[in-house]
Amino acid sequence: MPLNMEIQENLKKGLKQYFGFDTFKGNQQPIIESVLSDNDTFVLMPTGGGKSLCYQLPALLSEGTAIIISPLIALMKNQVDAMRNFSEEDGIAHFLNSSLNKSEIEKVKSDVVSGKTKLLYVAPESLTKAENIEFFRKITISFYAVDEAHCISEWGHDFRPEYRRIKPIVNEIGARPIIALTATATPKVQHDIQKTLGMLDAKVFKSSFNRPNLYYEVRTKTENIDKEIIKYILSQGRKSGIIYCLSRKRVDDFAQILQANNISALPYHAGMDAASRSENQDAFLMEKVDVIVATIAFGMGIDKPDVRYVIHYDIPKSLEGYYQETGRSGRDGGEGNCIVFYSNKDLQKLERFMQGKPVSEQEIGKQLLLETAAYAETTICRRKMLLHYFGENYNEPNCGNCDNCLNPKIKVEAKELLITVLEAVTVLKEKHKADYLINFLIGNETSEIETFNHNNLEEFGSGSDESEGTWETVIRQSLLDGYLSKDIENYGILKITKKGKSFLKKPVSFKITKIEDEDEMDMADFESEDAIMSGSGSSGSTDPVLFSMMKDLRKKIAKKQNVPPYVVFQPASLEAMATSYPITLEELQNIPGVGSGKAKRYGKEFIELIKTHVEENDIIRPEDLRVKTVANKSKLKVSIVQGIDRKVALDDLAESKGIDFNEMLSEIEAIVYSGTKINISYFLEEVMDYDTVDQIYEYFREADSDNLEAAMEELSEFDETEIRLVRIKFFSEMAN
What is the pLDDT of residues 324-349, one digit of tens each? Predict the structure, then answer.
């Protein structure tokens, strides 16, 4: 019987004997045949595709022990437990890492030497220890498996420098075939993995990244994000969900907020002790809780099939990370909703976090963020864009399962614009990235453009009639349609493809999504100060009659107090009152921008007005949702007020709290807009002259609104920080 026939027969027997399956899934069989034939093998298979079996079964069928290199202790433990469940012998699988004591390490080595152990999981750090290298050289190794192989590449979302040392160590121990596996790899990351592991000639197996059952949506992140997420979770009943946050503090805070609102939720992040993490993870897997709030530390190797939604509270750092995290939803092929909240401020915050890192690392991080921002801001099919990012074409005109396809935008002809882009890429000799190309097209004389003398080229400024947003859209669409590509070695540099060159010779129709002209947008129903201070626009459920009555009452009180109306209550606060109908002082304090001080000072008349309106009109007040806050969220604000009472300089106070000065100002603004009186005059006297303070103060006394942008336009000789500081002083003195 030929070798491949023997292999196939053994595979079927092994699959049934060890795993209880009759048939393989997707590419599993040819991958396993490749490993058993001693080939280097590269496997690109999305989450839930069955990657682990691709090295587990060949390890069980081969002579010797397979060395599985894995990045996380928790992941190793899960895999070892799973393998032991398939076998009568516990020694069939072991892990070797820093969590073991001396006697446990000796037991592992004894089982390996005796031939019991077919799979030995090691962390890259353990692989490189001298005593382990010495031990590995004495045993029979069937092959090496590098799991989560994207950790090798700096362009991957979980880069681990130790992974770069795998190939030299493997050579030192003794060369054997390598199988590298990952659930997320762009063409750039795949190239990096193969190059670093010395397996450019490996057999490559790619499965489709398309998960048709997953619904993708991007929502604008506003001040009401907590309420929006809570409302969504409550609408899902007892379904399982994951909420991803970027910081550990946010995880802890939001988990407490969910608990305060009767949602069964637990936190998970690397700052917790191992026992608590494991306990919370098990509670989620065993369905003792419905929701896990986590950093990206959660989820790798978690095999829970019925996660029905994955929500990103913050925009992820890369599309690879986003894809892997959303991939934990709907693994059983059922419903999977993937919602990400996006604001440009979050993007800027992530860019600030990169400062101080090596320049090359900053450049990589910036490129990955640009890809994420492009995904968040795009108006084209999100599925098409995600798949393109991973080097896969998606040719359906409408996927029918993302927000952009369910609410398609108008398409317009852009053939001439594409010609302009391709001609510019040509004249720039295909050596620059998208941001450089856009500056060149719109005629922006940056220092870099001047250095290359590209401002003297005839094509410089050839696209000045169009906006930056239009050129971003054209470039994005031309990449998706295959007219341009990004260079693999120098990622981000734009190259014209064969299809692009053909287009220049014989242009065909090329359409992009129409970019809305801001002047065409009807802003009549919005009051800008709502957005500035609350982050929210007008709500469709606002009671217009009550809102009008409250505006009249506010005007009357303001006239009596001799202050502008917005000082009494912000328009956003009135709008919220006209939506939720608070009829007690306690309920009034749940309204955005209303603290206990403001409620006591102005609340009584408004509550009486609302109560009368509700009774006279038989209004049933919405009681389905009231977001409760938790006490420790106000600790920072309390300590800031105490610091100001002690006359601590605000910049020193910000430093002591571990926040930047702008964040400090935002916290103080929230304090005074909620009705607490503070006095920052001591600080203003140190940093600003009296005339400046007086001039800005008078502006707010006369202004119809405290809109910051309007103030900056009117007071153009002063900077934003000065205006914000005086606005705090004015509001505290006049309103609180």
Answer: 899 899 988 899 999 999 987 787 77
